Amino acid sequence: MNxxxxxxxxxxxxxxxxxxxxxxxxxxxxxxPDGRIVxxxxxxxxxxxxxxxxxxxxxxxxxxxxxxxDIAAMGARPRWCTLALTMPGADSDWLEAFASGFYALAGxxxxxxxxxxxxxxxxxxxxxxxxxxxxxxxxxxxxxxxPGDDVYVTGTLGDAAAGLACLKSRGETSAQADVGALARxxxxxxxxxxxxxxxxxxxSGIASAAIDISDGLAADLGHLCRSSRCxxxxxxxxxxxxxxxxxxxxxSDVLRFALGGGDDYELCFTAPPxxxxxxxxxxxxxxxxxxxxxxxxxKPEIVFLRGTERVEPPVPGYLHFA
Amino acid sequence: MNxxxxxxxxxxxxxxxxxxxxxxxxxxxxxxPDGRIVxxxxxxxxxxxxxxxxxxxxxxxxxxxxxxxDIAAMGARPRWCTLALTMPGADSDWLEAFASGFYALAGxxxxxxxxxxxxxxxxxxxxxxxxxxxxxxxxxxxxxxxPGDDVYVTGTLGDAAAGLACLKSRGETSAQADVGALARxxxxxxxxxxxxxxxxxxxSGIASAAIDISDGLAADLGHLCRSSRCxxxxxxxxxxxxxxxxxxxxxSDVLRFALGGGDDYELCFTAPPxxxxxxxxxxxxxxxxxxxxxxxxxKPEIVFLRGTERVEPPVPGYLHFA
Lengths: 322, 322
Known about the structure:
2 copies of one chain form a homodimer. With 322 residues, the first copy, chain A, is α+β, with helices and mostly antiparallel strands. Helix content of chain A is 36%, strand content 25%.
């Protein structure tokens, strides 16, 4: 199979999106957005962002998920994507599984793959996601938070980092059947994160600021606070953590994963207390669990509290080139 | 320097494009297109698409150029781009030069870098380019050619492939001063190709089909013919080749580079004979050299002729996973 055969066989599927005027197969795709567009690019590198032996359907899923998560964090609706896939060889089983993971997630959120690039080299996957935002809607930036705003997160935190830890110590965790089933749930959260697409879109016009949690709550809330020029007080007892995480790991590990672990792709967002009911209604309508975990403050510092006692923040989020 | 410092220092420059509502620094960029958008992604991998020791400003230039070329080949105007840069380390001299090459080309064509991603791994650069196309303009697809249409190319062919050959045999070519100067011109065409941005835009509404020449004329004309469901007769004596190419290489090498060599990023396009004057006027206005090299035919086969004698086509264009 050369690159053109691979594209035809695995990456050319019809779309019913009538806004796609030209899709895969020409020099570029031609799309008709209604309103503004929201664009982001993310890269996964083998052995940096996922284990080299990760299931290929998970690699396909995850590569798209991380970009959709960024679109969601802007309050936009993802519509289209392009895929730049660099791989060391053309293995049809791998490609079949990769494409099935990729298209399954794309189909779930009505996203069309409209173009891409296939090259030979070390396994690296970049996905550009393109969303649309109606002319009247304000984007959900990181910089709109104000002191006094409530700080919220969707879902549960720390599962993905714990899942990665389970993967790394594979054998130990899967030796016990009960633990194995719980651990598998965490591993799935790491390998196949679900971007909060509906939640992000629902929060547009309600939340004051938002960011997706890819580097860990402490790091990503830090970005939000810096952009919003304020600080935050977070009650660590309010952090939403799954039963699986709590039952498999010690209290200190749970805290470390929840604050410092990346890859959850939950949303962290803020809203004034007066918007609390609208937040609940919007997220309730999309079936998204969420929890208020603290408050933005004037002082530009993030303080983690257990009751009135200060908890030292864990290691910062993942840094490339740290 | 961690990734955030690198982004702040090297990849955050103000844009005067008022259609950029949010640029670098949030979860995603927010842009206001006027009309349709045209999107493409391309990846350069070290030691596959460029020598690992290529000057970093050339890597930055080239990574953007190849994507702008695709936008040009659709007849659209490039406006914005995102950059996914994966690199093994954070070397400030390298980054400074890479960014300067990237921004110099972007500035020349009024393209704003609006977002990106920086990760640790083997040197790989993906650029998504986003162009706009007015509502009334037809995109320049590969599939609009009809039998009887003239086949044209812009600029000269084979220089980039010859430049790469010079790079590979470095030392031999630079030993002679005169030859060295000519060879340097070819090497520059390889390392810093100029995408035919104005020409592509000018041909919108005039040309019947277009493709950019990244894999070699024989291969890319093949794509155009397949999409247009026709063939072509090409007069190899009409192929435009530079003085430098002709003076440094044998007749057979010249033909091999001109037909089989990729990386020129010239445009190959077609137009009915009745449009010949409009083609000349449009390209003349942009100062783009061009030449008619043949005709599209009904029979789905590409024939290369020298006078009435058939010339065997050279090796096909570059194929990943061939």
